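This protein record is not my work; I was only asked to verify it. Take the sequence as given and treat only the tokens as open to question. I have pasted the whole thing underneath without changing anything:
***
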Amino acid sequence: ANSYYDLWGRPNSPSFGTGYDVDYQGCSCSQTGTCVSNYSCNCDALGPLAFDQGAITDKNRIPVTKMFVGGQTRTGASAKVQVTAVRCSSLPIDPPRDCADALNIGNRFGVA
């Protein structure tokens, strides 16, 4: 899909909620290797309704000022996009990049 969002005072971002790495091309499932059929976003897979979710964790990259979702190839394809309120957390919100990263995050923050 040809999707991007505009960030305040910055060029378009090709990522979709990939935490701190807003220049990553794809969705957070692509970072963790969990997208459907090796796509860069679940919504790119041809099949039943799929969804992607994520967060922007670099406070210098907000607010999001515009969303563009396009590139759908199926007749009747549609998209529903929701940008929610800012959430603050002392724990990292970025998805872990792999199992070792997940274990490291758990060890640093006492998450079992």
Summary: Strands lie at 2-7, 15-16, 18-19, 26-27, 55-56, 64-70. Residues 99-109 form the longest helix (11 residues).
